[in-house]
Amino acid sequence: MQSNLLSFFSKTPTQNRPSEKKTNQFFRTSYSSPNRAFSTTEPTFSSPIGPTSPLTPRTPVVEDDESLRPKGKRRRLVIESSDEDENASPHNSPVRCIKTTENVPNNRTLSISRSFSRDSPKTSASLCTSFDEDASKGKDCDVETSFLDTSNRNDSFALDETIEGDFEGNWPHLSLPFLHPDRIKDLNGHRPNHPEYDPRTLFVPDDYIRAQTPGLRQWWQIKSQNADTLIFFKVGKFYELYHQDAVIAAEELRLSYMKGKFAHTGFPETAFEKMANQLLHKGYKVARVEQTETPEGMSKRTGGRPGCEKVVRREICQIVTPGTWFASLRGGISDSTSGADAEEERMNCSLNESFSSYQQPLSRLDAEASLSRHLLVILEDRCAKDGDSPNNFGVAILKTVTGEIMIGQFSDDVHLSRMCTVLAHYPPAQILLERGNPSQKLKTILKSRLPDVPLENLTPKKQFFTASETLEILNSANYFALGAAPKDHSEAEIESAQKRAHWPGELLKMLDPFDPLGRTPLNNYELAIRCLGAVIFYLKYCLADTEILSLGLIKEYQPPDVVSAMPGLSHQPFYERQINMVLDSVTLENLEILSTGIKGSIKGSLLERLDSCCTPFGRRLMRSWVVNPPCHPAIITRRQDAIEELMLLAPQLQGVREGLRRLPDLERLLTKVHIMSYNATSPDHPESRAVLFEEGTYSRRKILDFLCTLSGFKATQRLVSTFASLSVRSEYLRSLTTLKSEGGAFPCCKERLAAFETAFDHEKARSEGRIVVEPGFDPEFDTARQNLDDVKEQLDDYLHEQSRIIGAQLTYTGTGKNRFQIEVPDTHTRNVPDHWEVTSQRKGYRRYRSPEVVRLFAKLVTAEDAKEESMQGIMRRLFASFAVNHADWHTVVKCTAELDCLMSLANYSSTAAATTCRPEFFTLDSGSQKPFLEMVSGSHPCLLRSFSGDDITPNDLRLGAVPGWKEQPTDGFKPGITSLLITGPNMGGKSTLMRQTALLAILAHLGCHIPAVRFRLTPIDRIFTRIGASDRLISGQSTFYVELAETAIIVRHASPHSLALIDELGRGTSTRDGSSLAAAVLRYISTPRNGLPGPLTLFSTHYHSLTDSLQDLNVADQQTVDVGHMACLTDGGQSGKEGNESQRITFLYKLVPSACPKSYGFNVAHLANIPEELINRGVKMAKEFEKATLVFTCLRDILKGQMSREVALAWKTRLEGLASEKTYTDGVTL
Question: Which PROSITE patterns does the entry link to (predicted)?
Answer without folding.
Answer: DNA_MISMATCH_REPAIR_2
